[in-house]
Amino acid sequence: MALASGLAITACSQPASTPEADTTSAASAESTAAESTDEANSADGSAEAEAPAEVSSPQARLVATYDGGIVVLDAETLEPVTDITLEGFNRLNRLGDERNVVVSTPQGFQVLDVGAWTEPHGDHTHSYTTTPRLTDHVYEGEKPGHVVNHNGRTLLFSDGDGQVQDLDNEKLADAAKDSEFADPDAVPELTPHHGVAVALDNGGMVHTEGTEDERFSIVAVDAEGEETARIDECPGVHGEAAAGNGALAFGCEDGVVIFKDGEFTKVDSPDVYGRMGNQFGSEESDIVLADYKVDKDAELERPTRISLVNTTTEKIQLVDVEASYSFRSLGRGPEGEALVLGTDGNLRIIDPESGDITSTVQVTEEWEEPLQWQDPRPTLFVQDGKAYVTEPDKELLHVVDIASGEVEQSKDINFSLNEITGVAG
Q1: Which tens digits make up the pLDDT trace of 102-134?
Q2: What separation in angstroms does the CA of 114 have from each of 52, 190, 259?
Q3: Among 157, 258, 293, 321, which residue's CB has the most CB atoms within a 10 Å radius?
Q4: How far apart are CA 337 and CA 402, in angstroms?
């Protein structure tokens, strides 16, 4: 088990789901990470982590990638806080401490301190900000893949070596106060494959099994690593989502697997081939949102139906949203609403219980999903009741208030944004 590289911290300087594709291959972790960090942090000339400043309330921030770098934005004003130069195709995932994100680089999961956080203090809290910085701390892994926050733990899955790194969110937050980094707990390595792992509340986890060529299995293990449940009937298993009732959903090429009460259940798709590879859960709903594709041989299928998986009744409802969408244009609202940004530029707000489209908001101009999944396209990210929608062709970022269905702001960012995530501050 390769643990994180404990490099000294040097200078200062968007979400997820992934389609069926390989991530970046690994290289010499320590030297390349240090070089890329030095280059990134040269943008503002800072040398060390700045002392934090206390602020009156949480300061939410957004983090987004563009070709050649990463920009951190104020989530309210959309003004840039820091621009970080970092070449390559950079992927973003939130850690569970609500302060840091990890950037998938050739070396592994490199930590980016977003520089905004809140600490509890008895019956109240204190909020702080500092300059965002790409640290040189890397949780090393070959082909860094899915990152899942659940049950107080963050699990990092590396496709190229089958490594799962298990991080305690409280330890992450405590270490971050001193600009340090928590070490992951050791987990036995799996056979390398494009997989995912999710923490359970008993100290165990659920993870996929497979090879580079095929994946059929999902396994539950306890805190000692002993297998407690298994299912081998999920061809092409991909992705995961947690529902409000504690159930987990995993996508298959012919349905979905639900894990609850320690057992797996397979729910078949209405079609022989009905792939539900990208799922989105909500603490406010027992229903999981997923995409739905039926053409196994398509170079790029542009589906117009989404699936709603009821993890209580174990039934699937298909909803025609009358426009195609991409894996980056799905999300969940603060009350569990299913959100779908279509290629017609409309954001649909859907009641997950009934499947009814309750509101439609025109946000962007019409767009077409590119053939390459890495290429920019309008992307949806939800935080604090707001839907943030990128429009890369116009270098715009839009903000939609989900409750009112109003576009509150559209701002020229001067970047063609790709991936986007954020922290609540």
Answers
A1: 999 999 999 999 999 998 888 899 999 999 999
A2: 12, 31, 34
A3: 157
A4: 9
